[in-house]
Design brief:
By secondary structure, the protein is α/β, with parallel strands linked by helices. 41% of the residues lie in helices and 19% in strands.
Length: 284
């Protein structure tokens, strides 16, 4: 019997987690055991949830963080916890706890993994449920990513990772900066499935435009070398096909300098020693 962990980061949203646990249902031909790992990202609210055994979940564990690390880092710490503690499992499904990653796709994700055991299963969003302003900003982000990196990165944290590929992912130099971007860069076979983004179980989205903008920058930072090279190539193209006025040259140099220093300053988020201070961030 294979053990699958569902890993969900959480911050002050215990009510939604309770709803998610009640909706989880995975039906496959092969017998599996489902365990749930909640990464509590230093919530100031106390858990208000019934942790009694669920029909499709054998155990529920909470990993408490001492300080708020953010969504992506909470996922990374949860993955590293499973590997560091040498916990026996076959694969991990990472997802949101608020309903935006619809649990109805869990069976499809797991079946895709059974048919492609050496693949990472990535759920790409074919339809979104946010407001118009959010969608406009999101597609601007996707467009800029494509222009500078030639990748259409429209997936988040709803994925299935085989155990042996998690070890490779945790070696990534950019993993502490962005989980989804590091997964995109991972040179492994990927199986893509199409999903629709669900609606939150309770309350409005906790993602502000400021947080979305910063999140967009951290994703792009993982591809900073390619973005800087692409920006330089585009600027050279503009320069050589323009009248080469001094003002234009100064503007192009300024733009390139801003891009260069912006992404290299953000790259300080990618701490190389995060594994050494791992247990300092955990509260038992």
């Amino acid at each position: 019997m294979k053990t699958i962990f569902i890993l969900a980061p959480l911050y002050n949203d215990w009510k939604s987690l309770s709803e998610l646990l009640n909706k989880i249902k995975i039906k496959v031909k092969q017998k599996i055991k489902i365990k749930f790992l909640v990464v509590n990202d230093c919530s100031h609210e106390r858990p208000s949830i019934n942790f009694k055994k669920k029909k499709f979940i054998s155990t529920i564990k909470i990993l408490n963080l001492k300080k708020n690390m953010g969504h992506d880092r909470a996922i990374v710490l949860g993955l590293y916890y499973l590997i560091k503690k040498k916990i026996s499992f076959y694969s991990v499904i990472t997802m949101e706890a608020d309903g935006e990653d619809n649990p109805k796709y869990l069976s499809q994700i797991n079946n895709a993994s059974l048919k492609n055991p050496n693949h990472v299963v990535i759920s790409k969003r074919s339809k979104r449920s946010e407001g118009l302003n959010f969608k406009i900003f999101y597609y601007i982000h996707l467009f800029l990513m494509f222009v500078f990196t030639y990748r259409w990165l429209n997936h988040g944290g709803y994925n299935l990772l085989p155990k042996k590929l998690i070890v490779d992912l945790l070696k990534s130099k950019t993993i502490w900066g962005s989980y989804s971007a590091s997964l995109e860069k991972l040179k492994v076979n990927k199986k893509i499935i199409s999903t629709k983004r669900g609606k939150r179980y309770f309350g409005p989205s906790q993602t502000s435009f400021q947080r979305l903008f910063f999140h967009s920058l951290t994703i792009m930072t993982a591809f900073k070398e390619k973005i800087i090279i692409s920006a330089f190539a585009y600027l050279l193209f503009v320069y050589f096909f323009s009248n080469k006025e001094l003002i234009l040259s100064s503007i192009l140099i300024f733009i390139f300098s801003v891009i260069f220093f912006l992404f290299y300053s953000l790259s300080f988020r990618e701490k190389k020693n995060w594994k050494k201070i791992f247990f300092k961030n955990i509260s038992y």
